[in-house]
Each structure stands twice: as C-alpha cells, then as structure tokens.
Amino acid sequence: MNRFNEIKSLVDDLEVDMEKFYSKSNKTAGTRARKTLQDLKKLSQEIRVDIQNSKKQ
To answer: Which residues of 7-37 are buried (b: 16+ CB within 10 A; e: fewer)?
Structure first.
C-alpha cells in the first residue's frame, strides 16, 4: 500500500500544478505537471509488473 500512497501524493501535487497552469497560465507549473505525469506513468507501470508477477506465483 506504500506505492498507493505515493500515487496519491503525486496526484495531489499534480492537481496544484494543473490548476496553476490552466487558470494562471504558469508555464513552469506545466513543466512540473508533465514531470509528475511521467512519474505517475512510471510508478503505475512498476505496480502493474508487480501485480502480474504476484499472479504468476
């Protein structure tokens, strides 16, 4: 469940940056949002692999 908490934290960070990017046109927040989305993608893939490996055992 630790990884799930990491995902929650990333989504919370993403929400702040997305709000700044779309409402205030803050370009730096857009860069942070893209990085956070990439981190979410990476973490999600790791979790998917772990789940698949657990199912195989």
So the answer is: eeebeebbeebbebbeeeeeeebeebbeebe
Q: Quote the tokens at residue 56.
A: 């195989």
List the one residue out of 7, 2, 16 whose CA is nearest residue 40.
Answer: 7
Q: In terms of DSSP H, where are the helices of the chain?
A: 2-24, 27-56
Domain limits of the chain? 2-56
Specify the pTM: 0.86
- The predicted-structure confidence for 32-57, as pLDDT tens digits, reads as follows 999 999 999 999 999 999 999 999 98
Question: Which among 50, 13, 9 is positioned nearest to 33, based on CA atoms?
Answer: 13
